[in-house]
Amino acid sequence: MKIAISSCLLGEPCRYDGRSCPSEAARLLQGLDGVELVPVCPEVLGGLPVPRPPSEIDAAERVLRVTSAEGADVTAAFMASAQAALEAVGEGGCKLAVLKAKSPSCGCGLVYDGTFSGTLVPGYGATARLLRTEGVRVVDEEQLAAVLASSAARHPDALPALFAETSAACPVLQTERLVLRAIGLEDAEDVFAYCSDPDVGADAGWPVHRTIDDSRAFIEAVACEPHVFGVFEKLFAADGADGSDGAVSEPRTGPCIGSVGLIPDPQRRNVDALMLGYSLAKPAWGRGYMTEASREVIRYGFEELALGLISCTHYLFNDRSRRVIEKCGFEREGIIHAAEPAPDGTMQDLATYYLTRVSWEEASRESARNGANPKLWQSTQEVRAE
To answer: Rounded to two decimals, what is the model's pTM?
Structure first.
């Protein structure tokens, strides 16, 4: 994966004061296999000198306005810098950028408010705004450090999930009873076994697989996308796995019984949001598997992908899906009427839901303080009783 990165984070002395801001997280990227860094400094690309007077975004203005500490309006220069950075990012083929926190060009979520008093307010720098508008994900070095730490703690030998471009490059996830991993062509017969069931496809919104070639096409076109996982049951000692206590470091698994993942939300133009989608073989219904798998994928999205929001939808008649969504803590937004055609061609309404990272983190902290939160963290016994 090619990643644009602020040059100052790599040690280039291009800041307004002629210094650099070397980042340990940025340094770690330089040693990752499969990651190619494309250094950019928007201000330098836009022709601004080094050093230069410090500048801040005027938070009181609804339209972008950047002023220098000397009182000069430098908006045009910063807009030109943003455009130059966008061109460099596009030429580099980058869909992800790691930019300097709090900068009037590169700030991601927080910027100085234009009073030169050190006050931070919610917002994005000029370059970060433009990149996000054009579909480029943007994180700062602080978000990057948190994501790398989470990935390293859970999957020390795997490529951090943020940089995965295929499902095969994503880490393997585990829950108490399940393994979530990439679906391969070797799983095609398992996929066909549940995708050929008309009750599964009708609820999920896709046509029944009529031949195993349909399942192979699904694996090659959909299941290969990053952050899409097959659902596999763990085999414990009672099922024939090695180990007397039913716990093994690399558990054996049964056949693929479903899929779960985070995919682009067609209703949102938000590079920090993905949509939870899933399907499950009919014999596995009623055992709490999809709630268990979805919770782990939600954690993965917020902790390892630095998402700001995860959405989810279901057809109005699909009460099983509604129960999974509600148990995972999503808030209902409303109904999109005549949103999409079902496999039989009839237009279906969609119930829409969302979960923000802030809400998820608050619920996680509450759970840690007070025990299981019934909305987010039911016990395994409760989940199995679905």
So the answer is: 0.90
pLDDT, one tens digit per residue, over 343-361 is 788 899 999 999 999 999 9
Both tokens of 205, joined, read 């919104």
C-alpha 103/C-alpha 128 separation (Å) is: 9
The CA distance from 90 to 349, in Å, is 37
Helices 75-92 + 126-133 axis angle, to 10: 40
Q: Amino acid identity, residue 319?
A: D
C-alpha torsion angle, residues 56, 59, 62, 66 (rounded to 10)? -10
How many Cβ atoms from other residues are within 10 Å of residue 33's Cβ? 6
Question: pLDDT, tens digit, for every residue of 181-190?
Answer: 999 999 999 9
Write the DSSP symbol of residue 73.
Answer: B
Residues listed for the chain: 386
The single residue listed with the structure tokens 């989940």 is 383
Alpha-carbon dihedral of residues 295, 298, 300, 303, nearest 10 degrees? Answer: -120
Q: DSSP state, 207?
A: P
